[in-house]
Amino acid sequence: MRPRLGIYIHIPFCASKCSYCDFYSLQGCDYIMPDYQEALLDHIDESSHSIKNYEVDSIYFGGGTPSYYGADRIVEIFDTLKLNGNVRLDSEVTVECNPDSISLTALKLLRAEGVNRLSIGIQASDNNLLKLIGRRHNFLQAQKAFADARKAGFDNISLDLMFGLPGQTEEIWLDTLKKAVELSPEHISAYSLKIEEGTPFYQMNQRGELTVPDDDRNRDMYDRAVEFLAAKGYERYEISNFAKPGYKSRHNLLYWKCEDYAGFGAGAYSCIG
Hints:
Blueprint: E1 4-11, E2 13-14, E3 26-27, H1 33-46, H2 48-51, E4 55-63, H3 66-69, H4 71-84, E5 86-97, H5 104-112, E6 117-123, H6 127-132, H7 139-151, E7 157-163, H8 170-182, E8 187-192, H9 200-206, H10 215-231, E9 235-238, E10 241-243, H11 250-256, E11 261-264
Helix pairs in contact: 1-4, 4-5, 8-10
């Protein structure tokens, strides 16, 4: 039996860059998407001799904004992985999506081609907070994206949420948690804001224009999330990740356990052996 391998694909393109984001991402660079796609597919082809020594049981398309890159391109990458590797039929295949750049048509295509898990970047339920942190959607759009994902046949959906945001109180954070749970996702990721050098938030913070919760308040928000989500049936299985029974992310766990994965795309890296 072959050893198992996870695969991460980095899609760096975004419609705009959020004020807190330190991930490798590009805005206004749509014109290089075709060349990027060609290079990415070539890299996967070149690596086929290595990939074929494994059984691929987890694939994760992250970014950037994979949904902005387009479902057609995601499917083409996935098909290339199927041709070049031993992708298991029961693989967990996740695509990150933003509510403003995903449609029901695109979701149906992804699901029909074998993508079986979505990670939707909702972040907050408060529209003013969403605008402040540079998100392009409002909460109504987030609710619609989730509903469309269900219509498209997805029964494994994760929601990304953030706490410790500028002006965010514990009450505002609890409202986000409540509204997220009302959607009944299978998985929730709750991340604390970290002000990274080089981001707009870092510059604002240096100028004294940004007020964020202090460490104690930040920890209180985290503890509140752990307590609230546990009461709603979400088990914390990693620092920032919570899942209903049977829905722990296989890809998250392989990072956590330092298992083998191969990375493709700008900024991606591998950890094998």
